[in-house]
């Protein structure tokens, strides 16, 4: 395999006495759409939280393009090209769609409040550049016509596209998506998938948590499965469907609620 864009080694995370991740070691090859699957409670969101710096692992390491990024905060990782979307998007409801997108780099890069006092012209130029980029990104995700609408008034599917727009403001090389298709109507799911595939074709790597196996079968290779905080499977989607260990994990998780 080419040098992995992302790798974890022995990643463990404890919530108090409960071990949610048990020594997870995995590699994500550049240019892939890796599907991350596993039954409820397997540790997928915890892994995303550790990868993106929202949680500091109890032990183990995360490397991004060969650099150890373990424990770095999300804004530093966003600048380094690693971005994520959330299962349930949380835009600022009263702000417009455009303002929400424009906030992404500022919130992530840090408001240069003193800069505004020291050099208002440079600040205005920066604001314009961010606005222009935000409009381009909204155009790409097909939301440009909603730019001036309050973000709280758009549909759930449009919120997912807005989330993707915010992610794209960071020019990410690696995007982690948490259930992108969940709760999205089929027409918008198609738009979302089309955009994800376009980005993937032009070099963006994706890791996608998804419960919908049809989605995984059609769009993800390879597939990595977690079960009770451990990697229990790695392979093609076809192998995943036929894997008895994986089937057991899903049935077991159902039996245990
Ligand atoms: N903040 C927390 N405190 C204590 N336990 C937690 C916390 N967050 C998650 N857990 C536990 O860690 C385990 C892994 O949860 P996680 O949300 O990562 O699973 P998941 O695979 O993302 O599940 P789902 O598919 O339902 O989203 C679960 O048993 C969960 O109850």
TrEMBL record:
Q: Please give the organism.
A: Dinoroseobacter shibae (strain DSM 16493 / NCIMB 14021 / DFL 12)
Alphabetized UniProt keyword annotations: ATP-binding, Nucleotide-binding, Transport
List, for all copies, the residue spans of the domain called ABC transporter: 6-253
Its protein name is Putative branched-chain amino acid transport ATP-binding protein
Which top-level group of life is the source organism from? Answer: Bacteria
Recorded GO MF terms: ATP binding; ATP hydrolysis activity
Q: Cellular component terms, GO, for this chain's entry? A: plasma membrane
